[in-house]
Amino acid sequence: MSTEGSQHHVGDALLGPDGHHHPEKDKGLAGGSVGLLGGTVLGISSVAPAYTLTATIGLVVAVAGVKMPIIFIAGFIPMFFAAYAYREFNRVDPDCGTSFTWTTRAFGPYVGWLGGFVAIVATIIVLANLAAIGVQFFYQLLGSVFNNPTLGAIWDTNKAVNIGTCLVFLALATAIAYRGITTTEKVQFVLVGFQLLVLAWFVVAAVTKAGGPDDPDGLAFSWDWLNPFTGLTLSAFVAGLGASIFSFWGWDTALTINEESKDSDKTPGRAALLCVLSILLTYLLVSISAMMYAGVGDGEYGLGNPDNAENVFGTLAEPVMGNPWYNLLFLAVLASSAASLMTTFLPTTRTMLGMASYRALPARFASIHPKFKTPGFNTIVAGCIAGAFYTILFLVSEAVLTDTILSLGLMICFYYGLTAIGCVWYFRAELFTSFNNFIFKFLLPLIGGLGLWFVFFVTLKDSASPDYDGSGVAIFGLGVVFVLGLGLILLGVVLMFVMRMRDKAFFQGRTLNRNTATLIIPE
Q1: b (16+ CB within 10 A) / e for 76-98
Q2: CA–CA distances in Å: residue 145 to residues 138, 187, 327, 331, 448
Q3: What does the DSSP assignment read for 225-250?
Q4: What does R_g of the chain's alpha carbons equal in angstroms?
Q5: CB–CB of 445/84 below 8 Å?
Q6: Burial class (CB in 10 A: 0-12, 13-18, 19+), 404
Q7: Which CATH superfamily groups domain 29-502?
Q8: What is the pTM of this model?
Q9: Closest of 77, 141, 174 to residue 379, by C-alpha
Q10: Which of 38, 56, 90, 139 is 20 to 30 A away from residue 158, measured at CA?
């Protein structure tokens, strides 16, 4: 940690301005509950590889064709480098507020508050989306098992059934998250293990059948698929990069449970890095095997067929895995969305807890359930907001709901990039004091942060057009994705000043600043 001003760092002890150790107050979470494997699994669960792949493979192929594997690698790079920024911050300040706490220490209360708000809003929005995807695959699985197309399509034809089932899914996920980190972790071992096993089955089956007599559109593997310098325009690269970055989102869950982890200053950072690497390997294997079997054309199974783009596994499951085993892939996507639905409560509620602990949110959000050791109030609030958000937008327009999800990319790049750049600024006094500091506190976080902000500004520019991918609806001549993405960030600015009028302590730097050594728990 920097020794600027009057702050000192000795070993793992954070010392205050007077040079004496001030032990941090415990927020009340269940400390020492999650190990390295558990943290990695919870991170993978939040990313939801099975769900993410079925939703993004078609989108990436549409802009990049056979270059899909290198697009996934390109999206991995800024995320992986940003993960090092999170790791370095966590080593000196393992606080469950993560982006909020660390950007506040780096840039001050206003920037930190906005970063925390954007992280909370993004995760609550995706809670609604994950529940919606769970509903879709739940009924598709039932329709397939009972050979009833009407039952399989009821999620699309009956709004009451759709909303009701979605709210039930959210309620179940809320209840599991409410009961504690150990309950969530045990459930995730089963759900994550199952989806990864089924994806491995899909990879082997697709590669084995590729180029066979029943596979006229398959492609022979080529190392050129991994070459970014051929057959790829800059505009296609940037467009694919946005989808690729979104597909890695969620690994920071491993960091938000730092106060509940064993060796809280080391384990969460290692878990985050393992999570990102595991996801990259999964994406490369599945995307390459899918191209080898289906190709990138617009044939019946082709990944370039617009009818397959939104749900690639829905099209490829039966021909690749055979009957009745293809139902396992439907079940894997359902398990993936359900698993992510549960773990996404973790970063949402822990960020709320971190903000409230420093009086950046009302004190009620700092409460901990006495038995389950979870921010129970925050969990219920997040579940209710996600349910209301989904219900209102689904009734207004399914297209608007889709646009809202697309706007998530802007928010993800905003707060991840902010945290990565914050690492460089926070540790500025020691960046060039050692080779490790130069690489892990300066170079990698800087590249990751600038890369994410580059995608943020390019996407912001492109999404201003009503023709940007989405509903095509214009608001004041601007695209809905642009208005929602930037609008929600600006809403955070308004709420920030409302909170400042309620309680100025945080915004005056009295509860959290660069040199704060003790945690302020609201009475």
Answers
A1: bbbbbbbbbbbbbbbbbbbbbbb
A2: 11, 24, 7, 11, 45
A3: GG-TTSS--HHHHHHHHHHHHHHHTT
A4: 23
A5: yes
A6: buried
A7: Amino acid/polyamine transporter I (1.20.1740.10)
A8: 0.84
A9: 174
A10: 56
Report the run of H or E that residue 50 belongs to, with start and end: helix 49-64
- Cβ-count burial of 295 within 10 angstroms (0-12 exposed, 13-18 middle, 19+ buried)? buried
Which residue intervals of 303-443 are DSSP H helices?
A: 312-321, 326-343, 345-357, 376-396, 398-406, 408-426, 435-437
Tell me if residue 24 falls in helix, strand or coil: coil
Q: Which amino acid appears at position 32 of this protein?
A: G
pLDDT by residue for the chain (523 residues), tens digit each? 333 332 323 223 333 333 333 334 467 676 777 889 988 998 999 999 998 898 889 888 988 899 999 999 998 999 999 999 999 999 888 888 999 999 999 999 999 999 999 999 998 888 888 888 788 889 988 998 888 989 988 988 898 999 999 999 999 989 988 887 766 778 888 999 999 999 999 999 999 998 777 767 788 999 999 998 888 887 778 778 877 888 888 888 888 888 888 888 889 999 999 999 999 999 999 999 999 999 998 888 888 888 887 788 888 988 999 988 999 998 999 889 888 888 888 889 999 999 999 999 999 999 988 888 889 999 999 999 999 988 987 887 666 666 676 778 888 899 999 999 999 999 999 999 999 999 999 999 999 999 999 988 988 888 888 776 655 566 777 877 888 888 889 999 999 999 999 999 999 998 998 876 544 444 4
What 3-state DSSP class applies to 107?
helix
The answer to whether 373 and 180 have CB atoms below 8 angstroms apart is: yes
Residue given tokens 């139902």 in the structure block = 327
Q: What angle do CA 16, 18, 24 make, to 5 degrees?
A: 30
**By CB neighbour count within 10 A (0-12 exposed, 13-18 middle, 19+ buried), where does 387 fall?**
buried
Residue 331 CB partners (closer than 8 Å, separation 6+)? 141, 194, 198
